[in-house]
Structures are given as C-alpha cells and as structure tokens.
Amino acid sequence: MSLSVSQLQYRRLYLLSLVLGIGGSFQYGIQVSMMASAAEHVQSFVNDTWMERYAAPVDASTSMLIWSFVVSVFSLGAWAGAVHSGSLPVTYGRKKALLFNNVVAVVAALLMVFCRMARSFEMILLARFLYGYNVGLGLSVHLMYLGECAPKKRRGFLTLTGSIFIAAGKVTGQIIGLRELLGSDSAWPYLLASSGVPAVVQFVSLLFFPESPRYLYIDKGDTEASKTALHWLWQEDDLKQEEDDMRSERESVQGEKAKTVLDVLRSRCVRWQLLALAIPCAGVQFCGNNALYFYAFDIFREAGVAEDKMHYLSIGIGATEFVTISLCVSTARSYTGYSFEMTTDLYPWIPYVNISLIFTVICIYGLGPSGVSMALPADLFLQAWRPSAYVCSGTINWVGMFLIGMLFPYIVGAIGQFCFLIFVAYCIFSSAFMLYFVPETKGKSMIEIAEAFNKLNYKHKHTEKEPNMLQTQF
C-alpha cells in the first residue's frame, strides 16, 4: 500500500520524466536507428541527384564518403548542441532551453520533408546537423532538468529513464523504418522527418510544468518559486530536508557563477569526478554499440544474414536493448562482461553464432554502460559545475560517435568480421577503472558525493577539506 501511495505522490514527477524523455533522449534513439532503414533510399537519391547535376553517376568512393558524412554530421551537430548546453540552460533556464530546442527539431523535420521536392541532398545534411544539435542539447538538458527535480532517493532511477527512452527510440525508429510503413522508396522523407512529432509533443506539454527547483533556488535565488515547484512536483508539504540540501549546496558555491569548461578541466577539486565522467562516457561509443545501429545491415551482410530478414532482426536488437535497460540497476560491472563477449568474435564459425553474440553484446550494454553513463553528470557534480560537466560528457560522446560514424565502414571493409576487436581494450580499461576508482553514489546527497571524491582529489593531503573548498580551489 505504501508503495502505491508513494507512486501516486510522485505522479507529476513521473509525468515530467515522460515528457522530458519524449523530446530528449527518445530523439537520440530514433535518429540512431532509423538511418539503417533509410540508407538504401538516401544513397539512391544522392546518385539520382548527382546524375541530374553532372550527367554522370557518382563513383563508389564518393558515394561512401557522402553517406558516411550523412551519418556522422549528426554527431557534429550534437557536439554543437552539447557545447551550448553549458550556457543556454544557465542563462535562460532548463525549460526555455528545451522549448527552443524543439523548434530546432521542427525546422529539421521540414527540411527532410521537402528535400526530395527540392532535389537537394544538401538539405538532408543540414537537417541531420540540426537533428544532431537538437539531440546534443536536448539529451544534456533533459538529464540536467530531471536530476534537479528528483529527490535523492529516486534520482538514480529517474536519470536511468534517459537510457530507457533511448532504447525506446531505437525500437520505434526500426519499426517505422519497415518497408510496410515509412521505409519505402516513396515515404522515406517522412521517415526522416518523424522526429518532428516528439518535438511538438514536448513543446506543448512542457508549457504546463515548472522550472527546475534547484535552478530557481541555487542559480536564481528565488526561494518561493523553488518551494512552489517542489510542492507541485512532489506533492509534499514537508520539504525541509530538500531545502536544507539546496541551501548547503548554494552556500558551498558562495555566490560564484557557473563554472566554465576550462574550469572543469583545470580544477583539482573535480579532477576525479571528471575522470569518472569521461572514461565511462567514452566507453558508450568505444564499446561499439552505436556502430551496430549505424551500420547494422552491413554487419548483418558480413554475418551472412538474408536481405529480407535484416529489418526484422534489427527490431529484435532494439527490443533486446530496451528490455535489458529496463531491468538495469546502477552497476559498472557489466563493462567486464561486455569486453569478454566481444572477444568471442575471434571464432566466427557460423553466421548465426555471430548474430547471437551481437544480441549478447546488446544485452550486456543495456545492463551496464548505457544506464551508468546517463546518471553520472547529475550525480558527480554540484550545481555550479554541472552545466559544464554536461558539455564535457557531450563532447566526449559526440566526437566519439563522429569518429565511429566516419571510420567504421572502412574498418569493416579492411578487417571484416574482426572489426569489433578494436573496442576490446577500451572495454577492459573502463571496467577496471569503474570497479576500483569510482565510489558508490546511490542514496547519497550531492554534498556527500562531493566529500567522497574529495578523498581522491586530495588524497595526499593530511588536512580534511570542507565541501565548499570543492567549489573554490584550483
């Protein structure tokens, strides 16, 4: 009974997580997965457009380069969005930053709808860049906003929903990409424009939700507005513990402005937090998971899968990730299993063995790296440092994705079925680091987490550092 009452009490907070997820991390998932279904049609469109302009077919190397850039320009846009996630949410607030971000997605969707009419594959490139910007900004602000609205006992679970929405977006992109739906030669522009729908849904829904309570209290100093937002979201009258936590965090900042990325990189007081953020975030890309989605059909062909089965097999991969992420608990130990499973590609005896190993890799990814990386920025950094921490994590994530998107098809062409061996070393390294150097954050306040990392940041000092020193010492 008490569980039901608690769930009912936080129903508005759960609804906020749904709204943020639809226009935030869901967009990431759908953009990653739908490109495999659209690949054949976009490449054909590029070739037809090239013929109309230059009266000659595009050669194979140019076609591969253009397609690789269509895939990877998304990451460049996402990096630009991640960079702005350190300034827009601080200047205008989390809510207004997301409202602006949804407008960007709608513009990108319109470019996709009209690209074929205009006979311009450059419009696809521009739209992919804008979609990337939307995802880079939206993913960071989604997790920032949600983490600041959640009580500490539910913060880990709610930030983990970001991974669940990514997986849901991947499955959705694979389903609507079926030839029977929007994956046909006549409907592919609407497939690529489908991200405009979640953007409109979030834009309208977000108007009914308050700004982040922590942003109002710590950044703006508006105590009453913060209390009102907390009461509306939590449906609680006794907010003293949360107010004390926010007061302690605001006092630790001592009136300082939000830190810059350069501050994060130079400051000793967040050195281990930065390492604990950077290594797992890079692991999300360099474990090879997104390569499976970007070039799923190429990997399936290499594994010997029949052409008419590839679309349905990709849906199975997306559904597997969704289920495993939904079952995920906050643990870093799955990095170890991920490394082990990928080494088994050394023995590709039969195609179906390779496919079963791909499903195993997706399961282990969902149980560990995906969920862990989502929760880290909200858990590891105090308010003044958090926006720049999201810039750092976003930069690592999107630059890594750009490199994977550009280079992976060439890697597959060069070493074939051994292509995933390049990810093994990083997976082992990430596993060891997470197991031995990252302290537990579950159930702790942000000040308590900062104190735990303080022992690593100043482990050679004999004097104990106060929490406020974490914000001021460089």
Structure characterization notes:
- Belongs to the major facilitator superfamily. Sugar transporter (TC 2.A.1.1) family. Glucose transporter subfamily.
- One of its GO terms (molecular function) is fructose transmembrane transporter activity.
- The chain crosses the membrane at residues 12-30, 64-86, 98-119, 125-145, 157-176, 188-209, 274-296, 349-368, 389-408, 414-438.
- Its main location: membrane.
- Keywords: Cell membrane, Membrane, Sugar transport, Transmembrane, Transmembrane helix, Transport.
- This protein has 474 residues and is mainly alpha-helical.
- Helix content is 76%, strand content 0%.
- The chain has 25 helices and no strands.
- The protein has helices spanning 2-9, 11-23, 25-54, 60-84, 88-92, 94-118, 121-149, 152-176, 188-192, 196-206, 213-219, 223-234, 240-253, 261-266, 271-286, 289-294, 296-303, 310-326, 334-343, 351-367, 369-380, 386-415, 424-437, 446-457, 469-472.
- Helix 2 (11-23) packs antiparallel against helix 7, helix 3 (25-54) runs antiparallel to helix 7 and helix 4 (60-84) runs antiparallel to helix 22.
- The longest helix has 30 residues, at 25-54.
- Residues 329-350 and 462-474 have low confidence and may be disordered.
